[in-house]
C-alpha cells in the first residue's frame, strides 16, 4: 500500500496534537473533570449529635464539590472547647460553649448554622398517666406539652409511676417518675436540662454568675443522681428509650433533631412513642467556632450554602429558613411543633459552669467514677444527637 505524501506525513503529529488540545478544551468547557480534584482537608471536633450529619455521604459530596474534605471527631460539648488543638473548628451544642471556645482561641470566628429545641420522648401509656396528673396535655395544634414545674412538684414528692392516677401504667411499676438524660459532666443536652430546672428553682430567673444556691444544686443533682449509673455515651439514653421500651426508659430528654432524624432515616421509634415539648424549654444553638481559614470556609458554608442547609434540615435541625424543615415534617406526617414560644435563655458561661461543676462534685461525693468523654466511646451519633 502506498505511503502518505511527505507533506501529509509531516502534518500528522501536529494534527494529532491539535485535535488533542481541542478535545481537552471542549472537555473543560463542558465542565467534565477526568482527574480527582485536590481538596482542602479540614478537621473539626463536634458534639456527637452532629457526627451523623458530617458523615452523611451527601454532605461529604457537597463539601467535595466546594473543594473541601471535612473530617470530624466527637467530644462531649462541655469539654471540647478546652482541647481544640489541631482542629480547624469546633462545634458545640450551645451558644455559651461557643462563647467559651471563642474566648480561649484568639481570632476565632463564630457561625450559627442551625439549632434544635430540647424535647422529651415518652411512651403513650406514660404520657396518659402524666396527663391525669396534670403534667402533660395536648396543645391546640395537636402536639403534646410537658409542664416542667408540675414535673418538679412530682419529683419533690418522689412519686412513682404506680402512684399516678388512672390505670395507664402497670401497678407493678415501682420506678420513680424521672426523666432520663445524658451525663451533665460532659454533655450539652444534660446541661440544657439543668438550665430549665435551675430557672424554675430560681423563681423563674436565669442564674447569675457566682456560687449557685446550695438548695438548687441539691435539687438538680438529685434528679441526675437518681437516674442511676450515668450513660457511657450521649447517644445511649436515646437508644435505650428506642430499643428497651417503657419498662426501662419511660421518659428521656433529647434534641428534637434526634426524634426527627430517627423517624426519617431510622431506626424509627415505636408507634406508641410520643414527642413532648417542655414548658419551658431551651434551644440548643449549634455553633461553629472557626480557628483557621479552612475552618472559616466550612463555618460560612454550613450557615449559607443552600444545599448544606437543606441537608441539615433532613437531619432534623432547624435552619434560618423554616421552609425546608417545615415541609419535611409535614410531608412525613411528624407530630412536630411549628413554633416554640415558651423558651428559657441559658445563663452566662460562668454561671452555668459553676452549677455544672457543683453537680459534678456531687457525683464524686457519691462515689461515682469520673465521666467518660465522647472520644473514649467512639462518639457515634447513630441517627441522633448529644
What is the compact description of this entry?
The protein has 386 residues and is of the alpha/beta class. Helix content is 43%, strand content 15%.
Outline the structure in words.
With 386 residues, the chain is of the alpha/beta class. It has helices at 6-29, 51-55, 57-65, 77-80, 95-104, 124-132, 148-156, 188-201, 214-225, 236-244, 256-265, 293-304, 306-314, 322-331, 349-365, 374-377, and strands at 40-46, 68-74, 89-91, 109-123, 136-138, 144-147, 251-255, 273-279, 283-290. Strands 1, 2, 3, 4, 5, 6, 7, 8 and 9 form a nine-stranded mixed beta sheet that branches. A hairpin with a 5-residue loop joins strand 5 (136-138) and strand 6 (144-147). The model is unreliable at 1-35 and 377-386 (pLDDT under 50).
Mean pLDDT, nearest integer? Answer: 87
Going by helix content, strand content and strand pairing, the class is alpha/beta
* Main β-sheet description: 9 strands, mixed
Q: Count of DSSP E strands?
A: 9
**Helix proportion range:** 40-55%
Helical region count? 16
Question: Beta-sheet strand percentage?
Answer: 15-25%
- SSE series: HEHHEHEHEHEEHHHHEHEEHHHHH
Poorly predicted tracts of residues: 1-35, 377-386
